């Protein structure tokens, strides 16, 4: 049989794992919380809640709880919710059947779910009856039920609310029902409870709450000595302080450093700490995983950036703070959060802040390109689409409606005597006239049901409206509404001076409509409506004219 020294010496060659086996010489107990948990397990109907970030020793502690339960003569079940497939969490009924089956197998009992399950009473009642009349009745000793990584079901809000309210009801039944007094419930999670749970209908405000503490200086020194490092006296204390200053008392980060120092003595502690936040350091794999998690959740990354940039403690959104705390990246000091350790501050300052600054520059350039693109297709004065975009959009609609065999209408509009208005009132007034007319056209066109209709500043005094899925009849009505609304603007002309037919600014309009054909092009429609508009200004202005050649649907006009 190997001696303690031999086990310890051989163990130094083993890379630190997620949990410490029961016989590991490197497990550091954290009194008084462990004694408190063991004592609580002996109480009838007890509830114990253990919370601490990932890789801080929860699983190692759970192994010892299971061993304590066994040594005490208790039955025990360990449910790891990481093993629950996504399909199991699609409904409460599936989840509770999975849960009962899991517990049954752990107790070496044959699952008999169908015998107790009744859809009329519901899955929560069925699950309760199954536990009480089948599982607890068949057990003489108390049952220690350890639920590990319950964080996994926080994201499934409907299931988590119902499941945790069920656990709370079992705890309440233990106050009066002897069978339920057998149950000792241990809930283990990394993050705080950030779901929309009714806290009074869950186990999260009853029983004993345990938050695993970080390693103290003394515990860091003790672990180093177990690895064979001579960290005693003032030198040992200074070494422990230097390590703690970089990684805090995080158990995994502490042990990883001590493991490397024990197995690779050619590298000093100072060298290890200098390299720690770099890609060449011992924490590179662990840090890259944390970085990947942040990159997959930009909201978390932005919040963590807030903490790093603050310089002092900062208040955060509770849900995001709980998630970051569960990752171990931040910790609560008083009522506010700070970066958990200097290692994270140095590493993520380099990889998140600089990365986000670069991303912000890229996004700024993208916005500038988008704005230039928008301006290239936008009339500066009216902010309507310009003739360049008119040509593109009309051709797109022509091709699309060719396939659909649906009507396409076009309205062309000219502001009557705009040059005379300009000569009389000046360029600024003429520009304002153009803007006001553009607003009328935009308002009238956008007020109709189709979001695909497009108002356009076609030329200096001309506008257009592309109207997909619109007959000549409907287009005529839209054109007439535009004409009447422009007159209502009351933009005065000096008609007596120039002999104009109207005292206010008016518009002349032409309408054409056709069903696009593969053999034709959109220029057919533009040419027909342009000719109609030219004829209209020669005949009589302040009118809407329909193309004599392209007037699909106009015959229905009354």
Mean pLDDT rating: 86
- Euclidean distance between termini CA atoms: 107 Å
Rg (C-alpha, Å): 38 Å
Indicate the proportion of strand residues.
Answer: 5-15%
The number of distinct helices, counting runs of at least 4 residues, comes to 21
Question: Can you put this structure into words, describing what you see?
Answer:
- The protein has helices at residues 4-11, 33-41, 58-71, 92-106, 113-116, 123-136, 157-173, 217-226, 233-247, 251-263, 269-275, 284-296, 298-310, 318-326, 342-376, 387-404, 418-425, 427-447, 472-488, 495-498, 522-539; strands at 47-51, 75-80, 143-148, 183-189, 208-211, 330-333, 336-339, 408-415, 454-457, 462-468, 507-514, 544-551.
- The chain has 558 residues and is of the alpha/beta class.
- The termini are far apart.
- Helix 21 (522-539) links the parallel strand 11 (507-514) and strand 12.
């Amino acid at each position: 049989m190997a001696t303690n020294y031999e086990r310890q010496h051989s163990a130094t060659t083993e890379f630190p794992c997620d949990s410490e086996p029961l016989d590991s010489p490197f497990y550091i107990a954290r009194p008084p919380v462990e004694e408190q948990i063991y004592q609580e397990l002996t109480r009838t109907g007890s509830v114990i809640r253990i919370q601490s970030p990932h890789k801080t020793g929860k699983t190692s502690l759970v192994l010892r709880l299971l061993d304590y339960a066994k040594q005490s003569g208790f039955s025990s079940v360990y449910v790891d919710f990481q093993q629950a497939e996504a399909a199991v969490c699609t409904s409460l009924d599936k989840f509770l059947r999975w849960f009962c089956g899991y517990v049954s197998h752990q107790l070496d009992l044959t699952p008999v779910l169908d015998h107790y399950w009744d859809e009329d009473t519901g899955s929560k009642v069925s699950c309760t009856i199954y536990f009480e009349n089948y599982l607890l009745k068949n057990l003489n000793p108390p049952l220690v039920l350890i639920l590990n990584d319950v964080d996994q079901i926080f994201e499934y809000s409907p299931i988590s609310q119902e499941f945790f309210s069920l656990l709370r009801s079992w705890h309440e039944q233990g106050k009066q029902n002897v069978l339920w007094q057998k149950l000792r419930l241990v809930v283990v999670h990394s993050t705080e409870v950030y779901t929309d749970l009714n806290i009074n209908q869950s186990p999260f405000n009853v029983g004993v709450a345990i938050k695993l503490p970080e390693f103290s200086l003394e515990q860091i020194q003790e672990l180093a000595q177990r690895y064979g490092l001579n960290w005693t006296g003032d030198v040992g204390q200074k070494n422990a302080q230097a390590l703690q200053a970089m990684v805090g008392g995080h158990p995994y980060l502490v042990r990883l450093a001590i493991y490397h120092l024990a197995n690779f003595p050619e590298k000093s502690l100072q060298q290890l700490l200098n390299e720690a936040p770099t890609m060449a350091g011992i924490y590179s794999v662990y840090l890259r995983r944390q970085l990947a998690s942040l990159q997959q959740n930009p909201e978390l990354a932005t919040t963590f950036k807030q903490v790093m940039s603050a310089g002092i403690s900062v208040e955060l959104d509770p849900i995001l703070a709980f998630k970051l705390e569960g990752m171990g990246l931040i910790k609560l000091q008083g009522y506010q959060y700070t970066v958990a350790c200097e290692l994270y501050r140095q590493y993520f300052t380099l990889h998140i802040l600089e990365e986000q600054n670069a991303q912000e520059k890229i996004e700024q350039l993208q916005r500038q390109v988008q704005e230039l693109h928008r301006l290239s297709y936008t009339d500066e004065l009216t902010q309507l689409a310009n003739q360049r975009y008119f040509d593109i959009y009309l051709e797109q609609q022509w091709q699309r409606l060719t396939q659909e065999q649906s009507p396409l209408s076009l309205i062309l509009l000219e502001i009557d005597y705009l040059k005379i208005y300009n000569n009389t009132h000046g360029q600024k007034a003429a520009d304002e006239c153009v803007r006001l007319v553009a607003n009328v056209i935009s308002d009238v066109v956008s007020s109709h049901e189709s979001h695909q209709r497009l108002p356009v500043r076609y030329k200096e005094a001309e506008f257009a409206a592309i109207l997909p899925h619109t007959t000549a009849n409907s287009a005529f009505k839209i054109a007439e509404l535009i004409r009447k609304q422009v007159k209502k603007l009351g933009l005065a002309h000096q008609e007596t001076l120039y002999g104009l037919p109207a005292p206010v600014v008016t518009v002349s309009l032409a309408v054409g409509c056709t069903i696009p054909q593969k053999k034709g092009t959109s220029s057919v429609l533009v040419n027909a409506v342009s000719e109609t508009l030219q004829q209209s200004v020669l005949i009589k202005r302040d009118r809407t004219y329909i193309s004599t050649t392209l007037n699909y649907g106009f015959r229905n006009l009354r």
